[in-house]
Amino acid sequence: MLTENKINEIKERTDIVEIISESVTLKKAGVNFKGLCPFHSEKTPSFTVSPAKQIFYCFGCGVGGDVFSFLEKYHGITFSQAAEELANRYGITISKKPLTKQQKIELTEQEKIFTINEKTSSLFCQNLLKNQEGQKALNYLIKRGITKETINVFKLGFALDSWDYTFKYLLKNSNDTNIILKAGLIKKSDKSNKLYDRFRNRIIFPIFDVKNKIIGFGGRVLDDSMPKYLNSPETPLYSKSHSLYGLNFAYQHIIKENKAYIVEGYFDQIALYQHNIKNVVATLGTALTSFHIRRLKVITKNIILVYDADNAGIEAAKRSVPIFIQENIEAKIVILPKGEDPDSYIFKLGEDNFRDFAKKQAINLFEFLVQHATDKYSLSINGKLAIIEELLPIIVSIKEEIKKSLYIKYLSEVLNIKESALREKIGKNSKTNKSVKQKKIISDWDKVEEKIVVMMLNFQEILDEIEKHDIVNMFEHPVLKDIAKKILENRGKDLIQKVDEEEKRGIINSFFLKDEKWNLLGAKKLLNQFILNFEKKRNLQLLKDIKEAQDSGDKKLLMELLAKQRDKHLNK
User: Fold this and answer.
1) What's the mean pLDDT in 316-334?
2) Which of 10, 29, 374, 443, by CA, is between 20 and 30 Å from 535?
3) What is the pTM of this model?
């Protein structure tokens, strides 16, 4: 179990600079380290890491936290997974303590979904291989060249053409309806509230995690019905923006070959794998995301997209470019001959031809964009201007100056224009157009309140004095008041983990990094001045309320306010 003591031990043993340096290039800047933020595009480093305080914060987009927060956000994992990864890295044993009854209920939900997924997958396999109704699906797969061995490896199946066959099967096996819903295997009708199977009359592709556990399903129709493909919804186990189809099968092969192919569909991935191209994964009905690239780049930096030659494939490739730039990966792309996709191409020409074609035709993604833009606009004067406008945002977003310089040089040579003119245009664009809208931190608070919160974080000797005078309840700004209360409740200990809202965590981290020196005399002086100002504002408000009560003729309210004023004078 992850006890508070164990979390503290992990934090004490972990070097946040070492961990973040594996993903971000950091340079010493005084007592801290700085680098380009991995969570938004920027030219000037605003991402700061404090080794003394073991936190990070970006002054550009407001993201911040401790080492757990970084791993969670960067790799798209849970707090527990981040803690386990760090514990394993630093040789810290996380003891397995007996769980309480409530903990068992909470922690077994995912296991229940895993179990239901396994049962459902077995049913789908049985439908495909042993049910008469599944024969049409089996014939379809065989016609496409998929072998029985491949069907068994990928556990391909078939969902019968029935509204509730799967649901009834799972209920018969004493499964909880609520868990079946959470697994995404059934849906509720908006009109009648009736429950029915999500997957019907479809070939089924189980989706695995890297530990070979089934986290979801994909289904393809056998005819021209729409949608052609249907995936599980977001569940406690499955997220399409984080998952790659076939990664469990490809993982060791990617490491061995130090290369990963990315294709767009189930059949593309399966076809390549069947033909001994086993270092291949597929996206799951969504565009490539940062999380996809991060999952791959920990095992290889050599990533090759193999996309269809149609407009959809080209547009998908174009959308992926900013993601690769953001993740600092020099990806390549292979555009297959017109009318081909990876599935059809490898069945026609085989493994050797595919490998040879990919080796010869793979080009840098930026070169691909330039080629596509020149084909689209031509090299007329107006065409060149259109090409520059289309590619400018991509060049501006590149963080590394050497890489940016090489891209500018390449584009200037292709367009036959002066490199200096292109640089001037890019320079103006960088100043006037932000590639991302930076998140703004709330700033409409009283600066003295801000200063007190900064002091509370960095000079905890003053906390008793603040509690004694009830300073926090004098705050006007709700965000600062809430943060101040959290500081008093936790005395700053593991504060980041106790704050749920990301915006507030960012504010706390920015305050932590303010390099201000405090002593008890100066701190008390600030508090006394704040109390005096608070009293002045309260007195002015009271006088204003008395005047309004007089003007309105509200005698009862007037008497109450005058009594309040008299009590204040007596207390003095």
Assistant:
1) 85
2) 443
3) 0.65
